Amino acid sequence: MTSIALGLDALPILFGAPLGGLLSDKYDKKLLLAMVFVYQALILLGYSIITMAGYAATWNLFFFVFLLGISWVISDPARMSLLAVIIPREALINAFSLNSMAFSVMRLLVPAAAGFSLALVGPSPLFMVEAVLMLSAALIVMMMRFGDDASAAQRHEATGKIMLDLKSGLDYVIGEKTIIGLACMTVITVILIMPFSNGLMPVYAAEVFHVGPEGLGMLLSSAGLGSLIGTVALASFARIERPGKILFILLGGLGILMAMLGINHTYTGALLLMMLLSGFMMTYFSISGATVQGILPDKYRGRVTGIYMMAWGLMPVGSLISGTIANIVGVQLSSLTGSSLIFLGLIIATYYFKGVWNYRIKNNRDG
After folding, report:
1. Which of 282, 283, 303 is nearest to 293 (CA)?
2. Where are the domains of the chain?
3. How many CB atoms lie under 10 A from the CB of residue 312?
4. b vs e for 11-32, b when ≥16 Cβ sit within 10 Å of the residue's Cβ?
5. Residue 49 DSSP class
6. How far is 51 from 169, CA to CA, in rounded Å?
7. Among the listed residues 280, 303, 287, 307, the one whose alpha carbon sits nearest the alpha carbon of residue 95
8. Helix/strand/coil for 144
9. Which positions of the chain have pLDDT values less than 50?
10. Does domain 2-146+161-358 have CATH number 1.20.1250.20?
């Protein structure tokens, strides 16, 4: 049930991300982001009232998570493509790592604080706090000033031909084998790593380490610390010319770490492993996302980003697989199974996606 709840957050991306990317091509990215933050604040405020009134239930929790997941359909393509427009291509990996650092800091500080707060005051006040934070984010975005190319999306002549615009983005992806390889490798990460490690962490906390919300918060915060260390290290690199090779190495390292999580029985060891897993994972996503943005021409950026983001929509599949295996054989054997599948996927990727391995970043924006 936990895996399904976490997976529903990503389900809308599977079907809606290309449309969200198209919207970010056609309309003002800044305004789209602000509207998404306001939408999230309203959803959070509404569910805070529901929990305060005592009507929280499994079905409406699933619905709440799904509604929040809809917002990622627009916010992720808009944010990633906006970042790529205002940053030179040769600096994209550093920029994406700095962008990830902001998430890492929050993942370090917030889960531990939320775990203790949840034990003290319950969920409703925390939803209210998050709603206020989302409204603050909307205000901050609207106060930003960009150049014309960054603040407004590129307009296309055939504004009403949605399917043709989407098809043009798909045609570009089909012709760019490196992007296909990067997307398939991201699918491996989304299906076999996040659901089998982060997604099952509440189960690890309850059934393996026997810790409450406070202990779970510390596990998630250790993941935030690992993400922060990984992104700081990545941002400090002056230049990465062969990102594909690093992605293959990181994917293999993630498989090893998840196998170690599956055989670990100590809470301290889990804290360390979650830190390493998250650091490797955040570094992987920063390099992969920046590499995709470095390849794309501006006129296809939003649509192709949306297609690339569809990989995240497969997370419910991974959540269902990991949760089902954990239900049958236990959570640790589930992680070991996921680790074995990662190495199988890595072997296949090594054979079919040599273009990713050989990809080299060029020095100019047009190259």
Report:
1. 303
2. 2-146+161-358
3. 23
4. bbbbebbbbbbbbbbbbbbbeb
5. H
6. 42
7. 287
8. coil
9. 149-159, 364-367
10. yes
